[in-house]
Structure formats: structure tokens, C-alpha cells
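Lecture 7 notes: from sequence to structure.
We start with the chain below.
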Amino acid sequence: MNQAISQNTIRIRRAALADAPFIAWGFMTAMWMDESDIEQRMSHLVLLAERDDTLYSWRHAWVAEDERGEAAAVLIAYDGASYRAAAQRTFTYVRDAGGPDFTQMEQEAGPGEWYLDSLAVRPAFRHQGIARRMLEESIRHGLRQQGIERVTLVVDPAHTWVEQFYASLGFRPAELIHIFGQDFRKMEYIDQQEPDILTS
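Predicted C-alpha cells for the same chain:
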């Protein structure tokens, strides 16, 4: 796809079980894995996305698609109150499948947070405003949920352009947390106005 698409042609919907392979690609891409790592781990991580009770479950995902129904982007987001139990199941699965052991790492999110875990846009759809739209709608959706006080995410401090992008959406730097073997900068968005509901 070489031509720009209209924002009006993009639809954001809740993910379905059948989206599990795209969700798995999405969270691996968001973790800056290269194509060879993604290919090697894909079968295990599709199974992780197919489950109902993990961090990267299809139940936590939204998909942006074009007018032909082609998947353009995926966003994983959830209530931080569920993080501890879901993380234990997720990282135990990863460890038992031969991956690294993250079962004892610091929590990424907690109660009161709507956590934007992973976002990935397919290369053909990048630089067209889709990521911004998905984030804006997820922020609005999250802040409508009972008990949510703030929206959070983490960025690698080495990726300053990513931090600048989130700052343009209203996120501000918060604490450093040590996850996945390195320090990440947590960023938070505090509600400023009454939001609308996410497209379902």
C-alpha cells in the first residue's frame, strides 16, 4: 500500500479469538523483536494470545482495520488491577516454553491504572495517524472504567522519539521501573475532561 488512507476508512474494533496471530505479532513487534525472533517464537505466543487469562490475551486487544477488513494495527490495554495474576500466568507460560524468566520482575501496572501495554502498526499503515487514534480512543475508554484514575504506559528511555510522541498525547514522565531486564520510564496521563466511549 503506497497511498495514504483516510482516517474515516479505519475502524477500531474489539479483537476476536481469530486475531490471536496478529496480536502475537503485535506484542512481539512492540517489544522490538526482530523478524527472526518473531518467527521463532510465533507459535508459542499465538497460544498465549488465544488464552483468556494472560496479559496478551485477545480479550485485552483492539484491532484497527481498513475498509477491506485488513488489519492495520493492534493495541493491548487493560485494567491494572488484573495485572499481578495475569502476569504470573503469562510469564510462567513464557518461562515453561523455554523463554526468559520474568516471573519475579517488578509490576508494570496496578490498581487504578488503565495500562497501555503494547501497540504495533503494520509497516504499510505507519505514519498515517492510526497509532494516535487508537491511543486516544483507548485513553477515553480506559477513563470510563470504574476505579481508573490514570492511564499509564512505559517507554525505553533510549527511544526519545517515542517518549516525545506520547508527550504530544498528554502523557508526562513518571517513575522509572525495572522490567524485562532493563529500566523503563513510566508515563502517565491524568484525565482532564469527560471522555467519550471507545468504538466497539
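Points to note: The longest strand covers residues 71-79. Strands lie at 11-14, 61-65, 71-79, 113-121, 150-155, 172-179, 182-190.
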